[in-house]
## 1
Amino acid sequence: MSWSGRRDISPAADTQMTEHNLVAASSEPRTRDSLIRDLLRLGVQPGETLLVHCAMSRLGWVAAGSETVVRALLGAVTDAGTLVMPAQSSQLSDPANWRAPAVPQEWIETIRANLPAFDPRTTPTRDMGAVAELFRTWPGARRSLHPTCSFAALGPEAEKITAQQPLSAPFGDEGPLGYLYRSSARILLLGAGFDSCTAFHLAEQRAWPGLPRIAEGSPMVVDGDRRWVRFDVAAAYPDGFPEIGEQLRRQGLVRSGSVGAATCHLMSLPRIVDAAAEIMAAQPFPFG
């Protein structure tokens, strides 16, 4: 499902290993304590605000799976820090824009009429991976109110991070990414690739203010009633994200290392947004 053909390559879209293969490929079990040691060795700091994109299968076999990963991340940043993850729910986007897969034209109105309204408590994530899906339900976690592009956060800054997210600019300066930029948060790609780096969408909007607008819509609760709410969003071009990430690595803006069996990348959100915007602005406009 996508905006005008867009399909973010999420951690969950990676090739999934069976648990049997994970055990066979792992030299030892990964535990909360071992993951915390690896996270701190990589450079994660107690008390910081950290936006995490996780591909759990890359970590190797983890005792208790996603729960252990969440507990390890919370343990690394401590109660003084704030953990943030994407909580996107593209299943609530306008079916007229779905491309992966598209649905028959005659289905569209039926789907629009029957999609459940977004509820930050119960709407599941889609293609975000098991860790992000568990994290949005974690006791005390808060979730922003965008029906398709929300973020979940837990910690002292969580309320401010999730307080607002304009329908028509979910990845802009007035939403969670803008707050994370201003608060000098960092990004951890925990086994995930640069194609999962949501912050690059903020860079896109700064580099290309003339991005085309895509008509969108989602089911939402308005004044106590379910309604189909129409809005528009900027088109996105994530195909170039991996190469931009590699350029940032070559510039020395990314610290890479291992957590469990995964190659991970740690970076300053404002620094990589600024640098990525410069790279994008120097490239041909992707929409003609």
## 2
Amino acid sequence: MTVRNARNRQKTYIAGIAAMMTLAMCSTIASAIAAENLRLKDGISFVQDTDNGFPIVGDKMEDATLDQNKPTLIFFGAAGDLNTNRQAKRLIDLYKKIQDKVKVIVIDVDHPANANVVKLIKTYYKGYIPLNVVLDKDGKLSTSHSGEIDTGELKSKVDRVL
């Protein structure tokens, strides 16, 4: 084996180890975090289409993993959409009541945060926003609703999977 071939083989080996370590770290991080402290972004309008960014902010928003043994509510929306903004307000009101019992995932369909988000978009999003999807504790679809929905009605859909 030439010195050149040995160096190329060593570089390939090191790159492979680095890639495996990165994947291991990412999967560990993804399973260890959960979106927290969801709230409405300051300056969001509920009367006109103005783009002040995505209407919901919070900590660890990139988490789009499903938790085993816990129901999930997925909210799909987009920045600058009046209906998304109004539904976001309802979702935050509901989130305050259910955050300990239900995992809430918030997705900006125009700016997917990672591969898990893209997978959820491909699986559940059909082109209409806002969209609320409720999954049972096994990750099976319970209900899906496009357009605005009253907080009480959405809560009753979530209550069915508790």
## 3
Amino acid sequence: MNNTGDQNTAAAGSDKIFDHVATSLLPTKHGEFRIHVYQPLGESVEHVAIVKGELKGQEKVLVRVHSECLTGDVLGSLRCDCGEQLDAALGKIAAEGLGVVVYLRGHEGRGIGLANKIRAYQLQDQGQDTVEANLALGLPVDTRDYQVAAQILDDLGVRSVRLMTNNPKKMKKLADYGIHVDERIPVLTAHTPHNIGYLRTKQQKLGHMLDFEQE
């Protein structure tokens, strides 16, 4: 696939840092999508774009940039709301008929990896919150970078986005790589006894835009 949109290309991080390696149709419970696989140069990790409709040249495209979460996305863990956010995003894109989920591998546990995330869970079981647990392990709170997401959106021809996120830092980081964010779309999920503490910490310490007033 060829990069489109000179404005985005200039700001999305100079030289292309990935190869587009595979694509096919992907039938899901939300309908049919097209899946694209991207591999960063010199790395084994593979990122995914799950696309609905023809995005080339489109503006204000509905977009979810989703960080890999094995426990939430695959195993249905109630510690987080990641799986619910992914499902909600695919459903909303399917209903609109146009959009993309950029699924970033290597972002497990806000970038600390699966084993370290499980170690952090153990500390959370002992009373620490998600931020405290990372720091107690000598790990950063969040190491995620979104350059490849910006370049994938550029490769797909997306000119501007309506970003489905509760995280204003994600909006800023994408903007820093040249992705124009027209609007933030909140991602609303259910709060449970298992994830309410985690979500409150994300609101209070990480700046996520979450509303608990209706509880």
